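[User]
If only I could read backbone structure tokens as easily as an amino acid sequence. I have put the entry right below:
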Amino acid sequence: MLVERFDVFLFDLDGVVYLGDEPLPHARESLARLRSAGKAVLFLTNDPRPTRSEVARRLARLGIEARQQEIFASGWATARCLKQSDVRSAYVVGSPGLISEIREAGVEVIESGHPEAVVIGGDERTSYAHIERAVRLILGGARFVATNPDSSYPTPEGPIPGAGAVVAAIQAASNKRPAVTVGKPYPEMFDLALEEFEDKTGRIVMVGDNPSTDILGAHRVGITGILVSRTPVRFRSNQDFRIPDAVIPDLSFLFDPRVSVRAWKSPSFSWPDRVEAGVAAVILNRKNEVLLVRRVDRDLWSVPSGGIERGESIKEAVSRNVIEETGLKVAATRLIGVYSDPASQVFCYPAREAVQFITCCFLCVIEGEILQAVDTEASGAAFFNPEKLPAGLLPTHSKWLSDTLAGREPPFIR
């Protein structure tokens, strides 16, 4: 039985424990059985509107035992994250409950002036004026903080817009991404919930109804994810983090001996937020030395590389990126390989966004101009003997160089 595999059970609320003002079938008795068996029961909800005490009272009305310290709501978690980041003031687009949690954490909520952060939760009273003010403050330098990414919430009448829908509107208007998103599938709320269970990682499970928040979030922090669903879910890649380790129709199946669960093993790469096409250039001079640039964002050496713009051919992209980074005019002569293996092609950036690149790497010849670092992303450029490459070379780029110099028949597909 699933119940025998785990000591700590994390539950989503909407769509798992209740829907609207009614508990879902078998939820109440299943949670009581878990407690009787000595299991730790915690609740993680992305709904930023209620306070933890309001959630506890709601569960009590439904006949479900829950102490306030067992409840981890994205509004409370956001308040904790603001406090931990030494944020002293915030403009809040959200409910009275969210505002209350932020004030309780010691952060001043202000309607005018220049707040250090803009917190986006959203509720039924969110208006165009709220969104307009949030955009202006973010463009003025305030930190963009999202309580959670959920675009909608389930209700008995169907889905309603969630905080993620408000975040998307502000992101589109400001052309800024949130500096941090607190709720599932991001790790902040999981980390807060699991602070006292660090020695039980293999015995912790998340039970939720949303593969893109509950299951993905569980797998990102290295724990098992069980999906509550009456229909199967399928993803095209068998490495997709959103694939649940077990699927059950309702919580009573936690006690069904016929239900099995796979063991989640964290892959060697981070889950990418998006996939992008890229190009790279291996450039050799007459001494057979290779051109490398030093990246400002990572303080590492790499071959010239970058993205592809709309309407641009691959060869045009190679030439443009090299000119922008080094000042050299080059021509692509041979495709070395196409690289997309996530173990080496997923890069995590300072703003926490992870990108998986599909990179076409070319051997290029120099046609003119003077070598110089001219791009803000490159702090230096120089030629190096392939046998004496500098320390701090990106591992992926080291592989591209070895494929170029291997003498085997290209192109390589990795």
